[in-house]
Specification:
The structure holds 2 protein chains of 2 kinds.
Chain A: H1 3-14, H2 27-31, H3 35-49, H4 55-58, H5 64-74
Chain B: E1 4-13, H1 19-27, E2 34-35, E3 48-49, H2 63-68, H3 71-87, E4 99-104, H4 112-121, H5 131-135, H6 139-147, E5 154-155, H7 163-176, E6 182-189, H8 194-202, E7 231-239, H9 240-245, E8 252-261, H10 274-286, E9 296-298, H11 305-318, E10 328-329, H12 332-335, H13 342-356, E11 358-359, E12 382-383, E13 388-395, E14 399-407
Parallel strand pairs in B: 4-5, 4-6, 9-10, 9-13
Antiparallel strand pairs in B: 1-7, 1-8, 2-3, 6-7, 8-14, 11-12, 13-14
Helix pairs in contact in B: 3-6, 7-13
The chains are: A mainly alpha, B alpha/beta.
Catalytic activity (chain B): (9Z)-hexadecenoyl-[ACP] + malonyl-[ACP] + H(+) = 3-oxo-(11Z)-octadecenoyl-[ACP] + holo-[ACP] + CO2; a fatty acyl-[ACP] + malonyl-[ACP] + H(+) = a 3-oxoacyl-[ACP] + holo-[ACP] + CO2
EC number (chain B): 2.3.1.179
Keywords (chain B): Acyltransferase, Fatty acid biosynthesis, Fatty acid metabolism, Lipid biosynthesis, Lipid metabolism, Transferase
């Protein structure tokens, strides 16, 4: 499954989302996540894609596209 | 002071995933102790435990929440979901400011060891941000409060093996003194991992027997230590009039609570037993009854040399010598010792015993010990009309906590 589709699937399984998820969706504001939820989401993505994201990389992830890019880089 | 009743029960243990399963297996004297599967025991001197069988967090939680909630919190939420539903509480039947949570654990989270290893080998920037929100002991209580929007007291007590009993006793006092109408009370434990098991093994507190039928044998002369268990139990405690008003099912009344501290040694009980006896006396007095009124004692009965000996002697002194040869059994013979959760699980079993007029067996008992001279309900469980059931919990640190439950027919 394409990375973006997989990320959308994970988000939809775990959150109730209003509106459509696009590459530009801002993760914290768009999904209404606080910082704890955000890091939990990143950890979930790490597990799903079997990668490791260091702390400084994690804080560069603002949109879903940023998440796709970082995951792609590590696969 | 207000009266306090129990209007909901929930549990998950090695004997089952809910109250019906756990009680049915208890009635049938089923021993759930098996070889450990949660980690490789090649290097461990301890080979058996009472694990929750085939547990998969994704059967209960989303992948996101499976990561957020450490195992002990997961068990707490599962038990609390059953209890809350059982109590039939709806939004308009309660004032959320008067719904409290008193929920504890002996050890709390169990991923600290793994994160420490990550920190030391990979580096500090790889330590999971979930380390603290996952492992802090109060996370079970906090997550329960969030789940049920309980805005009253949210408290997490810790008293080793007396944790569960202390949480229920404290919840009882909250309602008695008018601080809450409902308390989601209980305890949880999930620490069957190489580090904690090794710690108990080094203390010589756990049984190293590989024969699962001779590992947790409370009061038996050949006992050699406890068997680790895990799980959680939740009781919904409610102010009596409040329960009547919303037509809640009433399982039993919390009649009395007694709690003292040996202030003697960390892992050995005081041989003079003064404080442990006082906890039992206080609970009975608090219930407004005498030792002669107790119909059954669910013992702490851990299968350790000292606890079982002193607990037997105390009960003989206080009850038997006063004319009450009360039956005493230890359900740890079937589900091992769930540490902080034990007192809460045993409260559920004590209440089911009252409801069903049935005393569970001390399973696996074979060899008489001259220091343990009580009626341990051996061979099979026993049908008996029960009026008052007492539950004992004695924890590392010298914590002595006792609850007395009254049959709802006596309300």
């Amino acid at each position: 499954m394409e990375i973006f589709e997989k990320i959308k699937k994970i988000i939809n399984e775990n959150f109730t989302i209003e509106g459509k998820l696009t590459e530009e969706t801002n993760i914290t504001e768009g999904l209404g996540l606080d910082s704890f939820d955000f890091v939990t989401l990143v950890t979930t993505l790490e597990e799903e894609f079997n990668i490791e994201i260091a702390e400084e990389e994690m804080y560069q992830i603002k949109t879903l596209e940023d998440a796709v890019q970082i995951i792609q880089k590590k696969l | 002071m207000k009266r306090v009743v129990v209007t909901g029960l929930g549990t998950i243990t090695s004997l089952g995933y809910n109250v019906e399963e756990v009680w049915s297996n208890t009635r049938n004297s089923y021993c759930s102790i098996e070889p450990i599967t949660l980690f490789d025991t090649e290097d461990s001197s301890v080979k058996v435990a009472a694990e929750v069988k085939n547990y998969n967090s994704k059967d209960f939680f989303t992948s996101f929440n499976s990561k957020k909630y450490n195992r002990f919190t997961q068990f707490a939420l599962i038990a609390s979901a059953e209890a809350y539903k059982d109590a039939g509480i709806t939004d308009n039947s309660v004032n959320s400011n008067r719904v409290a949570v008193v929920y504890g654990s002996g050890i709390g989270g169990d991923t600290i060891g793994k994160e420490y290893e990550t920190c030391m080998t990979k580096g500090s920037k790889y330590v999971s941000p979930l380390l603290l929100p996952g492992n802090l002991v109060n996370m079970a209580a906090a997550n329960i409060a969030m789940e049920y929007k309980a805005n009253g007291t949210c408290m997490s007590l810790v008293a080793a093996c007396a944790t569960g009993t202390d949480c229920i006793g404290t919840a009882f006092r909250h309602i008695q003194f008018g601080m809450a109408d409902i308390v989601i009370a209980g305890a949880t434990e999930a620490c069957i991992n190489p580090l904690v098991v090794a710690g108990f093994a080094s203390l010589k507190a756990v049984s190293r027997t590989e024969d699962k039928t001779r590992a947790s044998i409370p009061f038996d002369k050949e006992r050699s230590g406890f068997v680790m268990g895990e799980g959680a139990a939740t009781l919904i405690l409610e102010e009596y009039e409040h329960a009547l008003k919303r037509n809640a099912k009433i399982y039993a009344e919390i009649a009395g609570f007694g709690t003292t501290c040996d202030a003697y040694k960390i892992v050995s009980p005081n041989p003079d037993m003064t404080q442990a006896k006082r906890a039992m006396e206080d609970a009975v007095k608090d219930a407004g009854i005498t030792v002669g009124d107790i119909s059954y004692i669910n013992a702490h009965g851990t299968s350790t040399g000292l606890n079982d000996k002193y607990e037997s002697i105390m009960i003989e002194d206080m009850y038997y010598k006063n004319g009450n040869t009360v039956p005493v059994s230890s359900t740890k013979s079937m589900m091992g010792h769930a540490l902080g959760a034990a007192g809460a699980i045993e409260a559920v079993l004590s209440i089911k015993a009252l409801e069903d007029s049935f005393i569970p067996e001390t399973v696996g008992y074979k060899t008489y010990d001259e220091d343990c001279r009580l009626d341990f309900v051996t061979g099979h469980g026993r049908t008996k009309e029960l009026h008052y059931v007492q539950s004992n919990s004695f924890g590392f640190g010298g914590h002595n906590s006792v609850l007395v439950f009254r049959n709802s027919k006596l309300l």
